[in-house]
């Protein structure tokens, strides 16, 4: 971008993709990060998403140099940063707590880093960074005179002014209320587009990760379960954990009973369904069948000849404005969810206790591997929800 001069530090000139090569971190006999291999393309907006305790902050801290990996390397381009001190790295972190100096003006807070490095036009650089986050007009104020969202922008400007190669964001919007969070998500994405820096964003909020990131890595128990663009992860989860963590999935404990052309035939909950072979694990016999709640239709009569359906009992109906959410029980006893957009007022609304049929287009179904010791996904969903909420 050339807006801000580069800063001191042994590796400040390092440029390129951020690479984690076999990175592991143990604390005593506990493994917090279990061998991560990752290449984050330069200039991309990358999200590390996972439940509390999965190892995302530890990963971020190893990129920042605040923790040293037990094994593996952290690199930017060809430059190995492993073992170097945080201030030597071309990496800055924005935390949830803004940690602004209360006695300094906003401009001086942002100019603090460049001044300390002896940059001659520190104040001008601070002003440019503040313009970028649309805070130029408040440069003379003190932090206490700003709202939470404004302080977060200043914290961002204070990191950007150092012109790092990589900007780390550790749950940066966690302290903001929901409306402001949504606004800041859009704003963060715009700023990242403008400055073109590599952003690595840690969050347990799947909506936040999907809204902003080009690429999302879903972490679970110190490992990356799946990585890809948000749309791809949502459309085709490869593990039961990802299917349940990124949005909601209806799951059925299924067995593969055959193959018809490019479709895999499965049996679950007393019904037979098909899954495109490309959307099922190759060669697996025991799988979880999956279908997203918005891909399912409720019909009161079985439309006939439609194999991909299941008879269910309605347990709960909630009107949420744009959609109605139905909770139903499938024959195996598992709860499924259906979202139906409220296009018309139904003169004969479906009510709890009704017996109905669910139908879906088999093209939207998917299957993920299942092992004998896999716990029940209904139980897991509750577990995941509590993990997300915590
Ligand atoms: P959260 O969203 O709650 O911040 P996280 O995914 O960022 O969670 P980490 O902070 O990376 O998780 O922690 C991963 C695991 O490593 C946790 O079980 C945590 O208790 C453990 N851990 C982290 N730091 C240390 C430490 N210094 N000593 C011992 N255990 C640690």
Automatic annotation (TrEMBL):
Superkingdom of origin organism: Bacteria
Entry keywords, A to Z: ATP-binding, Nucleotide-binding, Transport
Keyword flag Iron: no
Organism: Marihabitans asiaticum
UniProt GO molecular function: ATP binding; ATP hydrolysis activity; transmembrane transporter activity
SUPFAM superfamilies, per database record: MOP-like (SSF50331), P-loop containing nucleoside triphosphate hydrolases (SSF52540)
Cellular component GO terms, alphabetical: ATP-binding cassette (ABC) transporter complex
SMART domains, per the entry: AAA
ABC transporter domain: residues covered: 18-246
Keyword Transport: yes
Span of the signal peptide: none
PROSITE patterns in the record: ABC_TRANSPORTER_1, ABC_TRANSPORTER_2
UniProt-annotated stretches for the region Disordered: 368-390
InterPro entries in UniProt: AAA+_ATPase, ABC_SmlMolc_Importer, ABC_transporter-like_ATP-bd, ABC_transporter-like_CS, Mo/tungstate-bd_C_term_dom, P-loop_NTPase, Transp-assoc_OB_typ2
Name recorded for this polypeptide: Spermidine/putrescine transport system ATP-binding protein
């Amino acid at each position: 971008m050339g807006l801000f001069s580069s800063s001191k530090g042994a590796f400040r000139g390092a440029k390129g993709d951020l690479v984690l090569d076999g990175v592991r971190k143990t604390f005593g006999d506990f493994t917090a990060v279990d061998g991560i291999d990752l290449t984050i393309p330069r200039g991309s907006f990358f999200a590390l998403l996972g439940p509390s305790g999965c190892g995302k902050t530890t990963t971020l801290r190893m990129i920042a140099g605040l923790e040293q990996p037990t094994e593996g390397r952290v690199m930017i381009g060809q430059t190995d940063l492993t073992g170097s001190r945080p201030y030597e790295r071309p990496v800055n972190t924005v935390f949830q707590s803004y940690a602004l100096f209360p006695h300094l003006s906003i401009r001086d807070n942002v100019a603090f880093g460049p001044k300390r490095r002896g940059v001659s036009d520190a104040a001008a650089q601070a002003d440019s960074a503040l313009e970028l986050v649309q805070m130029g007009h408040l440069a003379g104020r003190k932090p206490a005179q700003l709202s939470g969202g404004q302080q977060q922008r200043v914290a961002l400007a204070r990191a950007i002014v150092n012109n790092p190669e990589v900007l780390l964001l550790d749950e940066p919007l966690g302290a903001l209320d929901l409306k402001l969070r949504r606004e800041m998500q859009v704003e963060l994405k715009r700023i990242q587009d403008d400055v073109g820096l590599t952003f690595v964003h840690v969050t347990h909020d799947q909506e936040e990760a999907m809204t902003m990131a080009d690429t999302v890595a879903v972490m679970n128990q110190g490992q990356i379960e799946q990585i890809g663009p948000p749309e791809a992860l949502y459309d085709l989860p490869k593990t039961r954990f990802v299917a349940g963590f990124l949005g909601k999935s209806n799951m059925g404990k299924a067995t593969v009973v055959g193959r018809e052309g490019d479709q895999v035939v499965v049996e679950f909950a007393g019904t037979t369904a098909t899954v495109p072979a490309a959307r099922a694990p190759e060669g697996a016999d025991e799988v979880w069948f999956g279908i997203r709640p918005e891909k399912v239709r409720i019909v009161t009569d079985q439309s006939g000849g439609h194999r991909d359906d299941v008879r269910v009992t309605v347990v709960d109906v909630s009107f949420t404005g744009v959609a109605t959410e139905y909770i139903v029980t499938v024959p195996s006893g598992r709860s499924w969810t259906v979202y139906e957009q409220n296009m018309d007022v139904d003169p004969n609304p479906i009510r709890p206790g009704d017996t109905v049929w669910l139908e879906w287009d088999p093209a939207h179904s998917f299957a993920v591997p299942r092992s004998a010791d896999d716990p029940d996904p209904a139980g897991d969903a509750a577990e995941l929800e509590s993990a997300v909420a915590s």
